[in-house]
Amino acid sequence: MVPESIRKEAERLREALHYHNYRYYVLDDPEIPDAEYDRMMRRLLELEAQYPELVTPDSPSQRVGAPPMEAFETVRHDLPMLSLANGFDEGEIREFDRRVRRMLKMDAVIEYVGEPKMDGLAIEIRYENGLLTRGATRGDGLTGEDVTANIRTIGAIPLRLRGDELPMPRRLDARGEIFMPIEGFKKLNEQRRKEGQPEFSNPRNAAAGSLRQLDSRITASRPLDIYFYGVGVVDGLSFETHWEILKTLPKFGLKTNPHARICRGIEEALTYYREMLKLREELPYEMDGIVLKVNSLALQRELGEVSRSPRWAIAYKFPASQEMTQILDIIVQVGRTGVLTPVAVMRPVEVEGAVVSRATLHNADEIERKDIRIGDWVIVQRAGGVIPEVVQVVTSKRGPDVRPFKFPETCPVCGSPVVRLPGEASHRCMGISCPAQLKAKIRHFASKRAMDIDGLGQKLVEQLVDKGLVKDFADLYHLRLEEIANLERMGEKSAQNLLDEIEKSKQTTLPRFLYALGIPLVGEHLAQVVAEHFGGLEALMAADEESLTEINEIGPQVARSLRTFFDNPQNREVIRRLREAGVRWTPPKKTEDLPLAGEVFVFTGALPDMTRDEAKAIVERLGAQTANQVSKKTTCVVAGEKAGSKLEKAKALGIKILTPEAFLSIIRKYTGEQT
Ligand code: IVH
User: Which of 2, 58, 148, 219 is 20 to 30 A removed from 130 (C-alpha atoms)?
Assistant: First the structure.
């Protein structure tokens, strides 16, 4: 009698395996990692072995692969395309070697060929008298799909065999693995993301999806590649070893993997595995293990096969690079620049030999696009072997108690408001003294083009913040000599130098001060623009978003950023304390005091080193007005190359005309470094 709980478990496994089989083979869109599928299959096989009465004719364990899609023509393989038994650890591989030697009654070492196990899809390509006549997928091993039209679009597959080295065989069925190189896979997904199409979860699915296109033009646009690793029916050529096959195929123009190697005995084979595992990260394509094959074809024949797998070969799989786990929580981390990054906290799971329990979810859009919710089961992978990422949600496993993630409205570190500026993907903390950002902010505050505090380098900032001496910009102006002198690599003298520098920095300009505050989106240039427009800090701090956007060059994003920044009480307090400490600036010059006040410039023709807009911006900053047409009000025309009618008109009106060189030397005089 089969216990009820076991019967139920087997039933559930069968259902799940059917569903995932369909996703994988029919839709080319698997939902769970292979490793998870394999585990379910193994558990089912285990149960069926223990209770044979559980086996039903339609059990997934009774069928390998799925029927080919109806739309392609079905073709029979004259020699079945076998699949490989898998081994996952050294013990299983040693056991394979023992079995081989036992069956062959051999004490001596067996010669194997080790090859990378490419992660793509198997294909058989028939050449008749050197011409490509058919390409077929493996399908269920006995029948596959005719994908000749698609195969012909792949550059790495010759349409005609090279015949300069060996006599052309009447027939050569070459077998190999079609795959998509990682670089091409990334580009394809990037493009699909832009077009709003679903992304492929890994290069293998992308390769399979690309090959099984009814429209071969789509296949042609995909970066597919191939390595050949064996033959089916061959007429007019004979081989004695597998190695010979691998060395012969390239002579016909059929490429084989250059990392294949002869391994004498199982020890060498295990060394080969370890070497390939290391190489895995460096290769431009994905490899999911190695394949060991008995080299001698005579011995292969002697060993034969069992349930569609040869006894003379085994795949030694690498640790899976994709696994399934559950999202327990989504937390938010605040980066150096104030950007808030959502991070998935997951049930720890081993991926490629490392335990993964966290993965960045990048930003709110990404969470929405992948529809990730707290409590969801997800596929995680270690992209490029290092940084873990969530590939997709396993929606069929979604329970009723999952909950969507809501971005916090205040910074988890300092409590300041969090904003998402229009057009930006990320949320930011707007706190001027947020500890998460403090070190970077102070470095920026002290930098040359901001407050210019010479000597306040990274090491020093780190110590000042870590020791709690500086919690915001204003604290810099209250540092005492002994506090600084006691820090690492400091002494009285260097401490005094720093204090002198800090003192000196108090006398600054409004644009520098604004830039130093590190207001998101407000760089040096925009700091200059708003400073000039408002003349003083009070007016700027009081301006509403609308009047800010009225300023040339200030868009809604910047206006919003300025407003949010100055509305934050913490920020206002730091500014107040900075001024109290003595930070001051001379009011920016009024327009009438500027050197080009009263001038009206018109530009015509091309300037050698700048655009016309840049030139206009410079003279406007120097107090001049600009116009597009020459009129009586015009005081100066700058005539560059190919100047046209404006130049004629200026001459007629007797207006001053400048060559680009003369213009540049004038503005250089006033702006110094600017041009
Ligand atoms: S040999 C009898 N060699 O792995 C040997 N297969 O599970 C049959 N594969 O369907 C295949 N790289 O898609 C062989 N170097 C390699 C391979 C390889 C990848 C795939 C192939 C095959 C599957 C077997």
Answer: 219
